Amino acid sequence: MEVLNRITLNPEVCNGRPTVRNQQLTVSQILELLAGGKSTDELLSQFPFLEAEDIQACLMYAARMANF
Predict the structure, then answer these.
(1) What's the CA gap between 14 and 35, in Å, rounded?
(2) Exposed, middle or buried by CB within 10 Å (0-12, 13-18, 19+), for 3?
(3) Burial of 6: CB neighbours in 10 Å, binned 0-12, 13-18, 19+
(4) What is the reported pLDDT for 19?
(5) β-strand 7-8 against 19-20: which pairing, if any?
(6) pTM of the predicted model, to two decimals?
(7) How far is residue 60 from each of residues 5, 44, 46, 56, measured CA to CA in Å?
(8) Residues 6+ apart with CB under 8 A from 45
(9) What is the pLDDT of residues 17-55, one digit of tens each?
């Protein structure tokens, strides 16, 4: 699975904002937590459904969006 396939856009989840695998957790929330100093391990512990590849996907998504 390509890492960006983990980022979903669904109008019925979080008002269509980019989320992690259709969960109630947005890419921006993950990025804000990382920017605030949370580690990958802390995020994985805080959100049991989250996988390391999800965090990588959020970072990749942000990098690609920054190029627009």
Answers:
(1) 21
(2) middle
(3) buried
(4) 98
(5) antiparallel
(6) 0.92
(7) 11, 18, 21, 6
(8) none
(9) 999 999 999 999 999 999 999 999 999 999 999 999 999
